[in-house]
Amino acid sequence: MIPTPCHRHVGPEGPFREVYEPAEDTFLLLDALEADAEELRRGRCTDINPLAGLCTVETAIRNNVDIQPIITDLITGLLPRLHGKVDLLLFNPPYVVTPSAEIQSHGIAAAWAGGKNGREVMDRFIPLVPDLLSAKGLFYIVTIQENNPAFSFIEHYYNLSFLTADEIIQILQKCGLKGTKVLYRQAGRENLSILKFCKS
């Protein structure tokens, strides 16, 4: 069993109060990664919130891990050089239903503001995944049933209004990705799932 990373420095008090505190979705994603620990390697992570990048460095230092956060909107600052080169891609997207204007934040609201149906950020990112992953790349995403975890590009293309996690997996197979639901957990009102994809 891998211990939960030290994260006491994140929260409502102190220098990282503008960074989203780890919650049930974070710990569910950690559980999925722990199950696949032998397959995974250390790497870089991106965030739109500069303070979250500093917090990531502090968390890494406190847990004796070397990590290099990059401040960018999703992967904008890393294209096109990442095409076909990503071995591990983790996405815990903002999924709270908010006005679309809130997704423009670079502060703590960026951690939860998902825009219309809580999916605007996911909808921008998902189409990029097949081109980003290397031949052996893995992609993990947190989805939440309450926000109808379907993606509007899929809805538009296939004329669907709601997809379950299993249907998301089936549709993304048509994009060349093989997927499974690796974990599911109810956390309060939220029904969270971790989906895992690789190239077929």
UniProtKB/TrEMBL annotation:
The record, for SUPFAM superfamilies, names: S-adenosyl-L-methionine-dependent methyltransferases
Print the keywords alphabetically: Methyltransferase, S-adenosyl-L-methionine, Transferase
Q: Which InterPro entries match?
A: DNA_methylase_N6_adenine_CS, Euk-Arch_PrmC-MTase, SAM-dependent_MTases_sf
**Entry's family note:** Belongs to the eukaryotic/archaeal PrmC-related family.
PANTHER family, from UniProt? Answer: METHYLTRANSFERASE N6AMT1
In Swiss-Prot or TrEMBL terms, this protein is called HemK methyltransferase family member 2
